[in-house]
Specification:
Structural class: alpha+beta
Radius of gyration: 21 Å
Shape: globular
C-alpha cells in the first residue's frame, strides 16, 4: 500500500464513523471492564456500529512528584529500582482495596473501582498509597526522594475500546480502554495539584478529592478515624477552575508509621 492509498483508507474510515447512520451502542455497568470485554468493540465499519460501556464510580490517579528532576539527577540503576518498586507497590495497594489498574504511563497509575463501595475503596487506596510511599519506599531512597500526589473524583464515565487489530505479539500493545468524561479529567488534574505549592505558596495535601467522594466516603465509612476526627479539610487556594468543593489531607495508616 502506498501513501496515497493509506490516505484514502483513513479518510474513508473517518467518514464512515462520522456518518449519521453509524451507531454508538452504550450499555450501563457496575463493574470495571477489561479491554476484551464482549460489550466493548473496535468501530465496526462494515456494520456501522461500536459498543461502549458506561460506569458511575470513583477514579483515582497517582504519580511521583518532581519526576523530571529525579530522571536528571539519579543513576539509571537507581531510577529503575525506584520506578519498579513504586509501580508494583501502588498496584498491590490498589488491588488490596479492590481497585482495578487500568492505565500505567511512566510514573502515573489510573485506578478504577466497581460501583459497590467505590468511595470506601478509593479513599482507602489513597491512604494506603501515601502510607507506602512515605514509610516504606523512602526508607530505601535518600532525602525522601519519593513523593507523590493523588487525586480522586466520582461520576459517570464512558468507556471505549481504542486501537487497531493486530496479531501475535503486537495484539495487546495496540489496544486500550479510553475513559471519557469529567471524573477522569478532574481526578487527573487534582493529581497534578496535590502535594505542590498553591497560588499563595502553601503546599497542598498529598490526597485531593472532590466533595462527592468525601460525602460518599463518610456514608460508607462513618467510623473511620479520618471521618470521626474531621481530618479532611476544604481547600481554598487551588489554582483550579471547578464548580464543586475540594477536600484534602496527608493521611496515612498508623501501622506503616510505627
Amino acid at each position: 500500500m502506498n501513501i496515497e492509498d493509506l490516505k484514502k483508507q483513513i479518510e474513508d474510515d473517518v467518514k464512515t464513523i462520522y456518518s449519521t447512520d453509524f451507531e454508538v451502542i452504550i450499555k450501563d455497568t457496575d463493574q470495571v471492564p477489561y479491554v476484551d470485554h464482549p460489550d466493548l468493540t473496535f468501530p465496526d465499519l462494515k456494520n456501522k456500529q461500536v459498543k461502549c460501556l458506561r460506569l458511575e464510580t470513583c477514579v483515582l490517579f497517582i504519580d511521583i512528584r518532581k519526576s523530571t528532576e529525579l530522571n536528571l539527577t539519579k543513576r539509571p540503576v537507581t531510577l529503575s529500582k525506584l520506578y519498579s518498586s513504586f509501580i508494583s507497590s501502588m498496584a498491590r495497594i490498589a488491588h488490596y482495596f479492590n481497585g482495578k489498574v487500568r492505565n500505567i504511563v511512566g510514573d502515573r497509575l489510573m485506578v478504577v473501582y466497581d460501583k459497590e463501595l467505590c468511595f470506601r475503596n478509593a479513599v482507602k487506596t489513597a491512604i494506603g498509597m501515601y502510607s507506602v510511599v512515605e514509610y516504606v519506599l523512602n526508607k530505601h531512597f535518600s532525602y525522601s526522594d519519593v513523593q507523590c500526589g493523588i487525586g480522586i473524583d466520582y461520576g459517570k464515565m464512558l468507556i471505549a475500546k481504542t486501537g487497531v487489530i493486530k496479531h501475535r505479539e503486537e495484539n495487546q500493545e495496540n489496544k486500550a480502554l479510553v475513559w471519557l468524561g469529567r471524573p477522569a479529567n478532574i481526578a487527573s488534574k487534582l493529581t497534578d495539584l496535590a502535594n505542590k505549592s498553591n497560588k499563595i505558596g502553601d503546599t497542598e495535601p498529598v490526597i485531593l478529592m472532590t466533595k462527592p467522594v468525601l460525602d460518599g466516603y463518610k456514608k460508607e465509612c462513618p467510623e473511620c478515624e479520618s471521618v470521626k476526627n474531621d481530618w479532611w479539610k476544604k481547600r481554598y487556594f487551588l489554582d483550579f477552575d471547578y464548580d464543586q468543593e475540594i477536600y484534602g489531607g496527608s493521611i496515612y495508616f498508623k501501622i506503616f508509621g510505627e
